[in-house]
From TrEMBL:
It comes from Mizuhopecten yessoensis (Japanese scallop). Keywords: Leucine-rich repeat, Repeat. Pfam families: LRR_1, LRR_8. Coiled coil: none annotated. The keyword Repeat applies. InterPro entries: Leu-rich_rpt, Leu-rich_rpt_typical-subtyp, LRR_dom_sf, LRR_domain-containing. The keyword DNA damage does not apply. This is Leucine-rich repeat-containing protein 28. The lineage of its organism: Eukaryota, Metazoa, Spiralia, Lophotrochozoa, Mollusca.
Amino acid sequence: MEEGDFSNVKDEMENAKKGDTILHLNYKGLKNLPPCLLSDICYRNLKTIYAKRNLLTCLPENLNRLLSLVELYLPSNNIKAIPEGICDLRKLESLNLCDNELTQLPADIGNLENLQKLQVSVNKLTSLPPSIGNLRRLKTLELMRNNLSVLPVSLSDCENLTTLLLDYNRLTGLPRHFQRLTSLSELSVCGNNLITLPQTFANTEHSSLQCLLVDKNPALHVLPLSLIHIDTGNFQSCRRSDPLGVLPGMVELVVPYKEMLVPIVMPPEIRSVNAPWDSVPSLLELGLRSSGALGKRFLDHKDYYTLLDSLPCTMKSLLLDPTALCQSCHQEVYVTALPVLVLDKSIFYLGFCCSIKCAVNICLMYSAGLGMDIVYPLCMPVI
């Protein structure tokens, strides 16, 4: 089909011109969208465009003229870039750009205030724009098979997100700030390079997480203890290689268990680990716990946020989103913790406690109460 030949979509265009709000252009061999679509006012009431598996390499800059669009379905094309004008489609609820050639999303994609479903799997994305956190109505985000190595913290502001698919990217970890995604019920991160998972997953009564799939992450040896009753897929497909030394500067332990050594990589925020016989946290940890407790009392006071803004960014971030919660008393844990390693059905789970007393409580609950193996602490501390 010639680039400017739209004879095979004549009937579809006529139907849309007469008032049909859905335009069907799937499998038409189109190299461009018909120009009249944007120049003729008759098409301004279009709500849905289906243009799957064509030969599109770009979208028109003035796509924002179709202000009534609710769904834009463009998978399996060769689209390399999205015009910024698409961010003016404030009524858009569903955008599907899977299986294209995208290397980035528009910087202002957060302006799509009604967007509920964003599907951009099978592209070449290396990053996401920070404005993605402004998509407060977003429920489904599909990013499988891209080149993402990190995710923006702002993604944790998508408060209505229920499904997040990140399979087959290059992620080594996930932001601990994801604890804010209390509506998230399904998270899939199979086939990445994960070394650790946030301890804050499913660690509060507000969490909706039911399924966290982690298959085929070779360097992932342990799961957060808070996930012990969550579906984590085929975890046996992980643990195939030794993660020690992968990320310089991270705190690592090697715990003997029977005839094997279990490598445990701490979350990157953890700077030191307390042994069971060493009950005094670091001064930094004590300071952060005191500041965190103070923040709970004055959370709604404007002076508290003024104080936070005066702190270094990393410290402010820790106070707002702690590394973990104590498995026993739910005290915030920041940079120093007492780890507890539990074995259940051949899967190792790692949790943190803020004190020896809490560690004893957790050990008793899982060993005596639930009949699971306590792998670490190697010996039960005595109070």
